């Protein structure tokens, strides 16, 4: 039986890295399958399911966010923002939503602090101009 290496990489590290028999990804044009001797390609991957058979023949399923897949030689590499086993999908989605929500709050706080600092700086410049005119 022939195999190829499947690597699922996210900003947090490798979500999966092992030998597999086959894989199916979701693209804009629909589902695309991969077998060990597939021609080299580079594809944009949509958010959704990634199904594959591991070296033992077990079917596994990951939920992935959009990204890029590259088949080169006997290696399929998927680069995406997040990927997690289907069984953990609900928990991980909730954690990801909380992360995004917290990031949004940090940006809003940062913008508010920037505006407040800018107003205070303008007041200080105005005060400095008035004192320099009085001298």
Shape: elongated
* Main sheet makeup: 9 strands, mixed
The helicity comes to: 25-40%
**What is the CATH homologous superfamily assignment of the domain at 4-88?**
F0F1 ATP synthase delta/epsilon subunit, N-terminal
CATH fold-level label of the domain at 4-88: ATP Synthase, domain 1
> Mind telling me which CATH architecture of the domain at 4-88 this is?
Sandwich
> Overall mean pLDDT score?
91
Structural class: alpha+beta
Distance between the termini: 90 Å
Number of strands: 9
The percentage of residues in β strands lies in: 35-45%
What is the number of helices?
1
Structure description:
This protein has 135 residues and is of the alpha+beta class. The chain has a domain of 85 residues: ATP Synthase, domain 1 (Sandwich). The chain contains 1 helix and 9 strands, in the order βββββββββα. Strands 1, 2, 3, 4, 5, 6, 7, 8 and 9 form a 9-stranded mixed β-sheet that branches. Strand 1 and strand 2 form a beta hairpin.
């Amino acid at each position: 039986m022939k195999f190829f290496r499947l690597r699922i990489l996210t900003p947090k590290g490798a979500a999966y890295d092992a030998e597999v028999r086959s894989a199916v990804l979701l693209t804009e044009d629909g589902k695309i399958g991969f077998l060990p001797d597939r021609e080299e390609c580079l594809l944009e991957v949509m958010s959704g399911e990634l199904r594959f058979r591991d070296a033992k023949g077990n079917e596994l399923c990951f939920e992935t966010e959009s990204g890029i897949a590259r088949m080169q030689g006997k290696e399929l590499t998927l680069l995406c923002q997040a990927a997690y086993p289907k069984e953990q999908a609900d928990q991980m989605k909730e954690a990801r939503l909380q992360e995004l929500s917290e990031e949004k709050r940090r940006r809003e706080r940062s913008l508010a602090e920037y505006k407040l600092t800018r107003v205070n700086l303008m007041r200080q410049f105005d005060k400095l101009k008035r004192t320099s005119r009085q001298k």
